[in-house]
Amino acid sequence: MEYDFIVVGAGSAGCVVAHRLSQDLNAKVLLLEKGNTDSNPMIHLVPGYKYLMQNKKITKNYETDNIKHLNGRRLIWPRGEVLGGCSSVNGMIHMRADKLDFNDWENKGIKGWGWNDVLPFYKKLEDSDIINSNWHGYNGPIKVSTVKSRHIICEAFVKGCLELGYPFNNDVNGISRNGVGYLQLSCFKGKRYSSAKGYLTKLNKKNNISISINSNVNKILIKNKKAYGVSYTKNGKDLTAVASKEIIISTGTISSPVLLQLSGLGPQELLSANGVAVIHDIPGVGENLQDHFQIQSIYKTQNSFSFNNLDQSFFRKIKEGVKLLLTGKSILSESATHVFLNTKKINKISTQDLEFLFSLASGDVLKRKLDTFPGITISFHQSRPKSRGSVKILSKLSKLDPLINPNYLSEEEDKIAYIRGLKLIRSIVKNNEMKKYIKSEYTPGNAVNYDHELLQYSKIVGKTGYHPVGTCKMGIDDMSVVDNKAKVKSIKCLRVVDASIIPNIISGNINATVLMIGEKISQSIIDEYKNIL
Ligand SMILES: Cc1cc2nc3c(=O)[nH]c(=O)nc-3n(C[C@H](O)[C@H](O)[C@H](O)COP(=O)(O)OP(=O)(O)OC[C@H]3O[C@@H](n4cnc5c(N)ncnc54)[C@H](O)[C@@H]3O)c2cc1C
Known about the structure:
The chain is α+β, with helices and mostly antiparallel strands. It has two domains: about 1-145 and about 185-290 and about 390-405 and about 470-533, FAD/NAD(P)-binding domain (3-Layer(bba) Sandwich); about 150-180 and about 295-385 and about 410-460, 2-Layer Sandwich (Cholesterol Oxidase, domain 2). The chain contains 14 helices and 27 strands. The chain is globular, with a radius of gyration of 22 Å. A hairpin with a 2-residue loop joins strand 13 and strand 14 (about 235-250). About 25% of the residues lie in helices and about 25% in strands. Flavin-adenine dinucleotide binds near residues 9, 467 and 511. Flavin-adenine dinucleotide binds near residues 35, 86, 253, 255 and 510.
C-alpha cells in the first residue's frame, strides 16, 4: 500500500494520531511499533500493573548514567514497549495539568497552547464518570473513573490535609487542581484503558491503516531536508517504508531524540563524535530532559485495609480476582493509590509546589514485592522541578541504549522542596485521626530528622516518577526542536508528537496531557490536509 502518513511508535500519543488520521482524515496510515501486541491479560486488568515491569516482552528497563547528585546512583527507567506504549503499563492515574502550566507555555511564545486551547482536546479524549460538568468529556475513547471506595485511613489522610489548611477538592480534574481529593483513573470496572485499547480497537474496516508490530525503526529517511520515509527491522529483515505526506515520530522522550540523532538531526558535535552524518544541526535534540523525581515515606498501619494483607492471602487474592473478572466489582478494580494532595497556592505556580499520592500498599513495585506487614505509602514529587538532564546516543548503531542523565537534584530549589515534602508528610500523619491507624514510621524512620538527613534519604531512595519529558521541546527559542504544530524545525514533512515535545514539565501525572497533545496535533494535521486528501 502507498501511505500518506507513517506514524512511528504506537504509544500514548502514536495511537491517537494513527486513529485520528486514518479515521477522521481518511488518510492511508502505516503505524510502526517496536513492541508486540498487548494480548497479555495482565495489561488489561487493573491489578496486573505490578506484573508488567519485570516482563521483558512488555517493558524495557533502561538504566540511567551515574547521577551525580544522588551519590552516583544509577536508576531504572521502565518504558512500555508494546502496543499502547507506557499507557499499557502505567499506574492509570488520569490527571490533567494545571491551567497555569499552559499560561507558562504561552508566555514562552508557544502560540495556541493556552488553557482554553487545550481544554477541548482533554475533553475530546475522555469518557468521564463525573456527572454533568462542563469540565469533562463524555464521548472520548478513554474511560475515566473516579476512585469510589472510601477507606477509613484514606478519609483520615484527607482530614489531616484539611487540618493543615488544604481545601477539599471533589474533582481533581475540575475547575481547580488545588487541595486534597480522590483520584481519577483511566480504567473502568477493573479494566485498563490504554491508548491502544481506546484508540486502536475502534478502527473502522476501511483498510486504510496498517499496524506493524515488532518493527524497530532505526532511521528517518531525509532528502533535501524533506522526510520521506523510514528504515526499520522486522523479524531480522531490513525494510523501508515511504509516505507521500508526512512522517510522525511518537517514540517517546527517550527514543524520539535518539531516532532524530541517529538520522542526522541533533547537536552537530554529538553527531560527529558518533560518526553520524549531520543533516541539520539542531542543538536542542536530547537536551532539556525533565522528570518528576519521586520520594516516598512508608508507614506500618493497624485497624485499616492494606493491599499488603491481601497479597499475603492466596485465597483472598483468588476470590477477589474471580469477583473482578465476573462482576468488575472487587477491591482489585481500583488501583492501590486513592488520594491526591496538591500543595499549590491558588493562582500561583512555583518550583516549591508538591504533589502527594496516598497508596494503600507498600513495598517494591519494580521487584513485584509488597511488604509483609500492613502498610501505606505516601509518595510525592515536585510538580515543576528546575533540574535538567539529557539523552544522548553513544553510537551510530541503534542497538545501543543512549546515555540518559536525568540530573535530579542538581538545583538547590529542588533539594529544598524534597526536605519540605518529607516534613509535610510527618505533619499530616500527626493528625489525631491518622494516629488511630498508624503504628510506626517505617521509612525514613525516627532516626532521620535534620535537613541534611532528609536530603540524604531522598538521594538514597528517590526514583523516577515515570514522567520524563522535554527532549524535543516545542518552542521558539534556539534550543527548541519543534514548532507549535510539532513540526521539526528546518525539516519538511516531519513532526514529533509525544511527551518529548513538552517544553516545561507540567504538574500532575502526564499521560492525559500526552493524549491531549496527540489529539491537538492530529487536529492541526487534519486542518492542514483536509482539502488536499
Ligand atoms: C511504570 C509507569 C507508570 C506510569 N504511571 C503513570 C500514571 O499513573 N499516570 C500518568 O499520567 N502517567 C504515568 N506514566 C507516564 C505515561 O504513561 C507516559 O508519560 C506516556 O505514556 C508517554 O507517552 P508517549 O506517547 O510519549 O510514549 P510511549 O507511550 O512510551 O510510546 C512510545 C512507543 O514507541 C515505541 N518505540 C520506541 N522506539 C521505537 C522505535 N525505534 N521504532 C518503533 N517504535 C518505537 C515504544 O515501544 C512505545 O510503544 C507511567 C509510566 C510508566 C513507565
